[in-house]
Each structure stands twice: as structure tokens, then as C-alpha cells.
Write a structure and sequence with these properties.
Spore Coat Polysaccharide Biosynthesis Protein SpsA, Chain A, disordered N terminus, single chain, alpha/beta
Length: 339
């Protein structure tokens, strides 16, 4: 019986890593610095890094026996698959996250989050505030981040499924602590890897929000590495290099089906889907590249209403051309496009 008690874990800290050798020591140090009486495990998954991430992970495992659960891969399986596999292995009653290039900046974060959740069982999770930092750790101001990419900023005290339907987030994943809804729930949790090859944070927040509200705390608990580089392998760099609007659109379709099938809740993401559709038309207009047309056409096929979508494409092209002729560039709103 004593051995069972000793093996119990209060919180599993999920650390997905890929080519994070430059940053991951700071990630681990920030987690190990936690001042808490709660027992935690650090579940780290290196997704076949091409740098020295594995060696660094091994050194930390040797220094801190019994703390790390290392899931190292000989083949890259992608960000969402990696997080899904780490969640499957988690033993904690609670789950927290810190990607291998982010770090925590509050050493009382775990103690405070779990204590609060223990006292407020009606909430599914709690999320703090995040500071964006640059490549070398310099703090970034709001003005340094494009408005559409400030997804970790949330003003209200409570985040609900209605907020998710407006494509909002309670904060950055590195600031979120959730009850472990993934343990012994592999079939349902597989939506994480099915929804998007790279993005997992929105799926995780959706799974939580369908079960209950998330408390939004004013405590700043993490630092998010906002970096876009030409040869970068992180999501923001990849997104800038690739047109991933179809993957986004497909993810939203899966979300709507998942919410209805599993919870009988109507999740309407039509306005956000229309935004991705419009964006794919405009990208193709600017590039006239076959690959961008393929992205647009995959959205049309997923939507299933070809005639309507072709009409919308023509309408957007004409509207954009008129704006250009008269020098009145403005955002094309998606309200009239029923997707």
C-alpha cells in the first residue's frame, strides 16, 4: 500500500520538445524551481530533434531521478501527435504544460493552481497570464505582436465554451492547469491528433471547456517564446512559411462534430471558417500559385457546397479588385459567407 501511495502524482507537467536545445534547460529549471508540497512528474517527449535536446534531457534525468518521464522518439511524429502521446502517459490528477522553448516565471504557480482547483471543483481548470519573449529572452510589448496572433490575451475572469466559439483562448497553454480529463480516455483524446497536425492547444482547451469553465487568473505565470525565423521549426515560423488555412478549416469542422457527438452541444464556428476561406482566396489571388489554389479547393471540397463556394470565390475576387482600383483597401468580413 505504501508503494502505491508513493507512486501517486498530483500533477503531470507536459513538455513537448523539438530542436529546443537552446532553451530547454531554462524550461526544466523553471519547473524544478517550483515551491510546492504537491508531487509532480515532468513528462517530456523529444520528437526526434536534430540538435542536442536529447543529451540535455538525459542530463536532467540523471540529476533528478524519479522526476522525469522521458519519451524519446526515433522518428518525428509531429507536434499534435507528440502531445497526445505524452498526455496518454500522464499519471497526475492535474495537467500543466510548458513547451520546450517556453518557461515558467512564478515558482508558486503549481501550489496556487492546484490548491485553488481543489477548493473549486466546479471549474475544469485555471489559466494565468503570459509574457511574450523574443528569441533571446527579451520581453516583447503588445505592439510587437500582430493583433491576430495575441491569442493568449483574455480579459474576463471566466472562460466558457461560448468564448471558444468566438475563437478565443483563456490564455497561452503554458499558463494553463487542467484536471486530468485525458487519463484512461484515449479514444476521446485522440481528437487531439486528428484535429490538426501541429496545433494541439485549441483542442485541449475545447475538451476542457465542453466539461466546465476555466478560471482566468491575473497572476503572470509563464513566458511564451514568440519567434518567427526563416528556418525555424516552431509553429509560428512554419505557419508563416506555409499556407495552413485548410488545416485550420478542417480542425474547425472536426471541433463542431466532436462537440455535438460527444456532448450534444452546438458549436458554431461558421464565422471563423469563413475567415479562413476568405484568407485562402486572397492568398491565392496574390500568389496565383497552384499550391495556394489547392489549399482553397480543399476547403471547398470539405465544405461540400461547390457551387456556392465558387460563387463566393468570384464575389471575393471582384470585391477585392474594386477595392484595389479605388484605393479603398479594407477587411472583407465573413458574415455573408455561410460556411
Amino acid at each position: 500500500m505504501d508503494s502505491i501511495i508513493n507512486n501517486m502524482v498530483d500533477v503531470s507537467i507536459i513538455v513537448p520538445a523539438f530542436n529546443h536545445a537552446k532553451y530547454i534547460s531554462q524550461t526544466f529549471d523553471s519547473i524544478l524551481a517550483q515551491r510546492t508540497g504537491f508531487k509532480y512528474e515532468i513528462v517530456v517527449g523529444d520528437d526526434c530533434s536534430r540538435d542536442h535536446s536529447r543529451e540535455i534531457i538525459r542530463k536532467y534525468m540523471d540529476r533528478h531521478p524519479g522526476v522525469f518521464v522521458n519519451i524519446s522518439r526515433n522518428k518525428n511524429i509531429g507536434a499534435a501527435n507528440n502531445i497526445y502521446e505524452l498526455l496518454k502517459r500522464s499519471k497526475g490528477k492535474y495537467i500543466a504544460f510548458c513547451e520546450g522553448d517556453d518557461y515558467w516565471c512564478d515558482d508558486a504557480r503549481i501550489e496556487r493552481d492546484i490548491s485553488w482547483l481543489n477548493k473549486n471543483p466546479e471549474y475544469i481548470g485555471i489559466c494565468g497570464r503570459t509574457i511574450p519573449v523574443g528569441e533571446n529572452g527579451e520581453k516583447l510589448g503588445i505592439e510587437d505582436i500582430p493583433a491576430e496572433e495575441r491569442f493568449w490575451i483574455y480579459a474576463k475572469d471566466c472562460f466558457a465554451i461560448e468564448d471558444f466559439s468566438r475563437w478565443q483562448m483563456p490564455g497561452h497553454l503554458s499558463a494553463l492547469t487542467l484536471r486530468n480529463i485525458f487519463q484512461n480516455n484515449n479514444a476521446e483524446s485522440s481528437v487531439i491528433r486528428k484535429a490538426h497536425p501541429v496545433v494541439a492547444d485549441r483542442t485541449i482547451v475545447l475538451m476542457g471547456s465542453l466539461r466546465g469553465n476555466i478560471k482566468c487568473s491575473q497572476n503572470t505565470v509563464s513566458c511564451y517564446r514568440f519567434r518567427i525565423t526563416e528556418n525555424g521549426t516552431n509553429f509560428m515560423s512554419e505557419f508563416k512559411k506555409k499556407n495552413m488555412r485548410y488545416e485550420d478549416y478542417h480542425m474547425m469542422c472536426i471541433f463542431e462534430k466532436y462537440a455535438w457527438k460527444k456532448f450534444h452541444k452546438q458549436l458554431d464556428l461558421s464565422a471563423i471558417k469563413a475567415d479562413r476561406f476568405i484568407g485562402s482566396v486572397l492568398v491565392w489571388m496574390n500568389s496565383m500559385d497552384g499550391r495556394d489554389w489547392e489549399v482553397l479547393w480543399k476547403i471547398v471540397l470539405e465544405n461540400g457546397h461547390k457551387i456556392r463556394c465558387i460563387y463566393y470565390i468570384g464575389n471575393i475576387v471582384v470585391k477585392k479588385k474594386i477595392m484595389q482600383i479605388f484605393g479603398r483597401e479594407k477587411r472583407i468580413e465573413g458574415g455573408r459567407y455561410r460556411l
